[in-house]
Amino acid sequence: MPSRPAVSATFSLVVALVFMSALPAHAVGGLTDVQLIDRDSGETLSVYRHQGEHWVAGRPGARYAVSVRNATPGRVLSVVSVDGVNVVSGETANWRQTGYVLSAWQQHAINGWRKSDTEVAAFHFTASSESYAERTGRPAHVGVIGVAVFREKPVPPPPPAMAPSPMLREQGAAQESRSSAPASAADAAARPRLGTGHGERETSLVGHTTFERRSQRPDELIRIRYDSRENLVAMGVIPTQAMPSRPNPFPGSVSPGYTPDPN
Q: Average of pLDDT values for 251-261?
């Protein structure tokens, strides 16, 4: 009948959408795409959504990076925290602190705690007791990564060309100096939780720029929690049901041939 193919097609689309919604994602965010990269395996870690939270499974001992990609046509400031600690300054994280400025569509992999304009101490998954946050007396927020994203305040058009008096020129210079703010370019109780360690020094070059935020509050606030795969399975974040194997219509085929005679 004419209507049956349309009904069948609609049903197939709904099934596909439901199936896709159950799959883990790899990035979180709207203004930015935030991913976690296992630097030792090169794998982009899957993001699981569970009870309104985003989770990733870290591999104990592995170095990792927080990859942030600007998904807008303008500059953004990303203030990044790991375990409740600002990754640039090492302060207890506050979104009014310094961070990394990204140009339009730019991506940057943050590989560690910034030590200078040329070095970082590598992020690596470790037992919570060995995490940088806990070793510096701040264990309360181990296991969470945050990215606060700020759009840049639009630059007003330049005034008509005039030759200002010396007094106006001095006032203008003082106002510009005050308004510009510098920013770096940059329960499974049986098992211990994961945290982020303060690893070996690595070369990582950044510069400095100025960035005036459009708002004092973030335009986007991203939160990703992490723990070991075993703990996430125990917590129900990662489902334990194995996917049923798909039957193979040609299980004995290795190379083309012809039908053999029976014995």
A: 61
